[in-house]
Specification:
The structure is a homodimer of 428-residue chains.
Chain A lengths: L1 E3 H4 L8 H10 L9 H11 L13 E3 L3 E2 L5 E6 L6 E5 L4 E3 L5 E3 L2 E2 L1 E2 L4 E6 L5 E9 L2 E3 L7 E4 L3 E8 L16 E9 L4 E9 L12 E5 L15 H10 L7 E4 L30 H17 L9 E6 L1 H12 L6 E5 L15 H14 L3 E7 L5 H13 L5 E5 L5 H11 L6
Parallel strand pairs in A: 17-18, 17-19, 19-20, 20-21, 21-22
Antiparallel strand pairs in A: 1-2, 3-4, 4-10, 5-8, 5-11, 6-7, 9-10, 11-12, 11-14, 13-14, 15-16, 16-18
Amino acid sequence: MYLRFALLKTNPLKATHKQQLNKIRMKKTVNKVSKFRMQLMLVALILPLAVIGQEVGSMERLISPEIADDNTVTFRIKAPKAEKVILSGNWMPMVPNDGMGMTRETVELTKGENDVWSTTVGPLEPELYGYTFVVDGVNTLDTANLMVARDGTFRTENVLYIPGEASELYWAKTGPKGTVHQIWYESPTLDQTRRMYVYTPPGYADSNENYPVLYLLHGGGGDEEAWPTLGVANHILDNLINSGKAEPMIVVMTNGNPTQASALTVSPKLEPSTQPAGGMANMMFEKSLVNDVIPYIESHFQVEANKENRALTGLSMGGLQTMNTSFENPELFDYIGVMSMGFADLSRFGIEVDHSKRGKQIEALKAADPELYWIACGTDDFLYQSVVDMRNELDKHDFDYTYRESTGGHTWSNWRIYLSEFAPMLFK
Amino acid sequence: MYLRFALLKTNPLKATHKQQLNKIRMKKTVNKVSKFRMQLMLVALILPLAVIGQEVGSMERLISPEIADDNTVTFRIKAPKAEKVILSGNWMPMVPNDGMGMTRETVELTKGENDVWSTTVGPLEPELYGYTFVVDGVNTLDTANLMVARDGTFRTENVLYIPGEASELYWAKTGPKGTVHQIWYESPTLDQTRRMYVYTPPGYADSNENYPVLYLLHGGGGDEEAWPTLGVANHILDNLINSGKAEPMIVVMTNGNPTQASALTVSPKLEPSTQPAGGMANMMFEKSLVNDVIPYIESHFQVEANKENRALTGLSMGGLQTMNTSFENPELFDYIGVMSMGFADLSRFGIEVDHSKRGKQIEALKAADPELYWIACGTDDFLYQSVVDMRNELDKHDFDYTYRESTGGHTWSNWRIYLSEFAPMLFK
């Protein structure tokens, strides 16, 4: 159940990750902390000197999560004094709580030998999941699992990858791979030096060709790191392109919060924007996308700079920004995707929609005749009705769109699936 | 002490981060979970729609860590049933434990209102620190702090940045910034498609000039993400270059583990290398650096491809690899830096040093006459004696080197400082 750290570093030669874990599990080692020197000795014998080189910490680690061949998963955490340890994973269903809202179901762990609590769940469907423990009411990451992801300003979670057909696109596989660039660019519109991630496809660095560009927007609470981490956009694109399902394309992942120069974790000392507050309502991000981002990309990358080779999509807040940008600039994009967002009724927040203006925008976009206007939403999404309203209004104008309804809600699982389906429809 | 999530998203307009936190702290809000709809309403009133767009989680968050003007720091964690909560931070001294080794000193938190435990420490010197909580024996990240970093395969920690002169280089400041590229390249030597990070300096994208290159190696247990995250190499270089202290240069950060294609968090499904085990002893990484990495960089980037414009440095395991590579290829680099590593006595691990071969290597490198051979080590480093031995052996050959002795040990604090001092000496 424990693996000594040193064993993590044995050669994975000709053994899959899982086979290797099995091998390791058979070598039952005892739970003994400290005695660093002896352990260093052991480590050194197995792999000379490899342990040297970082600040030295605990040399043993529980195996958690452990994925069995049938995709059941065992989670473990050592908690000597705990009375109650629960697992909260985003594969579990939401159930009504005693208040007005919904709460995620949890699973209780049971205490075993050596103060180690464990539970086995599943089998789980192939997917990328997030989870945390709650130990006597304290949110706790699984320190045995080095895979950790930040969900915007919401939370930090452990990541669990269940391999299988449905999640094959989400990981680096053998084969050519694109490059992810962390770029800082000037945004005169927002008066900031801002950060964005740009994916260039396999082969780009050795090619003189010009490529089409997909602008890919995150949701509220997120930032430019959302799509390259939780969204695994680079892996999805590599795998779609390598299998011939999608055209090679550049993907631009901006920070959609007009008051932020970058993810807040990058620099507590970045100058805040001098732009007015608002975020979504003020259209400033949309303006900066058109006036600053697109010109930067088209002058710094090998780009086919025309409508036929521009696509725009985003989820939730980014879906609203996609609508706003394409309505205001009907001749800019031939491919438009709105994920998990519709024509929400904002009147209770004091924001009145100008229906005559919206009608004119829909007509203008219809006249521009984009190749694809794609709308995707889950049946459990709390914005589902806004998508119904949107479709009704588009229908009134005989506006041509494609509607994709999925199961599930307002989740990264859905957004990864939507990207996997949207990208193959582009630039063909 | 709590801040509602929505308030995190108010406009930082004309307020520093700290001023804003002060403002927020004054609005004392109550600790109440759930009632999602009501909170969404509240959020929406403050910032229309901005909360929409991610999976929805808890809407409140403690403020932790809170840095006061005098650099004392208050840590907080809610733990309703805990008997003992401690803080472990890497600014605290190591003290002998009851075994044979050393243990880091910790601080106990005390329980206050609403089950919130807290402690105030410091004032702390300006620096980047790592810390975790231990709640009744369970390692626990500070979920109020979104800044989290992975220290190789060792651990995941929260990050605490104390601003001040000594840490000014470690963050994105106003001004031009370089680009960080996550690149996959073919390594015939290791029979892998491998990942590396490449930093290009401010202005690179708009320049036709050729640049010098620094190859920057991590330590054992680390990977290609070590220098760009814990090492903040891109921020250090941006700030040194922007202030005129260092020449604009490209920095290449590889994965120094020859059996790994990339950080293990990137893909549990990557094909393992077909190379024999060993890691450090087999010289395979060093061969791949010379045969695969350098040619890739010199053919894909705007590079001055000659000895005068090549530098190599690394810490610990990367220091050994730096020595190995420069001894085997004396004509390749004009600038060589060995951090926290010397001529270690490996005989107890069955590795005998061929002293006559080493003597010839030293003489060959001496004949190649590099501009700079720099050795840096902390007085508390557990490899300190190996550096003494190295200097003695180099002295025997009248080999010209510069020695930098710092306080402290085998720590990222020292390695950031060393990079800050090494980079300005290059390519001048």
